[in-house]
Amino acid sequence: MKQFLALTSFGIEPLLADEITAIGGSDVVQRPEGVHFSATMETGYQACLKSRLASRILIRIDAPSAVKDKDALYKAAKDIDWTEHFSSDDYFAVDFVGKNEHIRDSQFGGLTVKDAIVDCFRDEGLDRPSVEKINPDIRIQARLLRNEVTFYVDFSGRSLSKRGYREHSGAAPIKENLAAALIVRSGWLNDTTKPLVDPMCGSGTLLLEAVSMASGMQPGVDRVQWGFSRWKFHDAGLFKQLLDTAKTDTEQALANSKVKVFGFDMDGRVLQTAKANARSAGLGHMIEFKQGKAEDLKNQFGEPGHILFNPPYGERIGSLPELVSTFTELGKVFKQEFLGWKIGLITANVEMLSLLKLSSFKRYKFKNGPLDCQLALYNIDAGQLERTPVQADFSGQNSDFANRLKKNVKGLKSWLKQNDVNCYRVYDADIPEFNVSVDIYDDHLVLHEYAPPKDIDEAKSAKRLQEAIFWAPKILNIDADKVALKVRTKQKGKSQYQQLNKSKKSLIVKEYDALLKVNLWDYLDTGLFLDHRKTRKIVAKKAKGKTLLNLFAYTGSVSLQAAISGAEKVTTVDMSKTYLDWAQDNFELNKLRGHKYEFIQADCLQWLKNNSFKYDVVFIDPPTFSNSKRMDTTFDVQRDHMDLIKTGMKSVADNGELIFTNNKRNFKMDFDGLNLVGLKAENLTEVTRDFDFKRNKHIHNSWCIKRL
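RE: above sequence
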């Protein structure tokens, strides 16, 4: 009997142990590292051909050896006669798993084993074999656990879960062995005459795995490469016999199968991929694919069956709002259309499950790649309907958030009509329990979640966010795919500009007579500070026919409005090349070109000290705090505003003025310091704060600084 180790991902191990037992393995033991079992070579080959739940199968080539340091590891590897296992002509690779006090790095352990293997060949007077990491002829795995190392040959080869049919995949396909585990846990295999429906089938992995399992097909028959192919103890004749039998059995199973399952997806392109994969697997006649939204699913399948699916997890920026709406509607659909059915879905966003308003009877934990997930199982029976009746709305009662948002929308109507504004704020944490802001950008919506206080329960906070995400697009009549969600915490300096995503999407919006580019998806801020709308208008009016300097300019919206209003010269300064390029894009959108528009990438504080040109209007909107690596010192607006204003006034013409703004809550202007240097400050905050920000008196501070 040989000793084997079958590997899989977290959560699948108990199912794999049952599968190995059914295949013929003995002394089956489930451990955290995988499933250990004893078997003949024939059963080992059968495990490779038949296992749907293993990701790889290893065969042990020696008893465990005690190892505490590098020398002991080298000796343990050197004691094995590797020339009995492969030849000098074979390319090999070493995987090392585990660590201890002296062997702390897998690469270090792997190199030590590799050196021992090479020295073994040299000691026998043979040429040293070459290392090939990507596609070796034979792969060795050394596993170090509790100061004992065990050496294995990779018997099956990597990626045993790959069935060989997949031509393409969707955006986030699950691996076939995880799909197989979900199908087993769902209970559908107990009676495959019942319908199986995947309402978000993507590239079809779940359904393809389901029909091939139900038909009795052996998943390894189409595999081309095996880990044991160049191993000297491989019995090629025996394996060919087993493979031929497996192919014959699979062909018969395919011919006799009457299984029928159903897949739906809203993306027609992904469905084409699913159909191609089904044809490639020879299973196209068993799966009926149709385009449609999951929340529009109707019961057209006859007797009660199973719904099993792998919805998006909301990891992608912007996808969570769509997901909240979908989950909320799905719960209603299941209770209205699928009485008597069993529902199963896997998600990494466990909070979403509460939106279904269903009571699960079982939860299983899995890993989908790096993500911790749960498979939730539900019975849609009379008891379910009694416990969780169909709700008429999100919460089954009036939503305080929804009512406040409706009130705000009504209150803004007259102002919007008079001012022709299409980018504005409709809600800003008006109700403390719903700590979010809601902004409109033309036909898009941006929802910012502020970090909740530490004493607020995370589950409650998540539920309130879900409620806000659910209601905001409905009340504002905006499609869920045009909603961007962002989590906002207290930021320091330019960290508010940190990149979140790399979609590089942009949207063109209009403010007064200006066109501006905004990005609602890739950064915490969008490229346009809505609270400074009136500030931009005021500065633009002051700069008409005059010169303007815009410092800490961000995407140059103040510069742009001034240029459109007829400023004689506009200088835009910011440290970020990204935002200066963005500012120039805004100028190009409005066909503003020429030498009088200047864009300078520089540390604004240092640039001010060196500047000699005098401007009629200087606009300074510094960060609250900055410790940029490109600055020699830190900047704190409360501590340093006097120095900044004094330095800034050196660039102001004799009869000019400096507009100073910031968004520090409870900012205190140093009037005494201003008087000492011959300056006076007029508070413009109430003037620059527009109607849609009237509820937030701390959104920003604005001052007009002039000489006495």
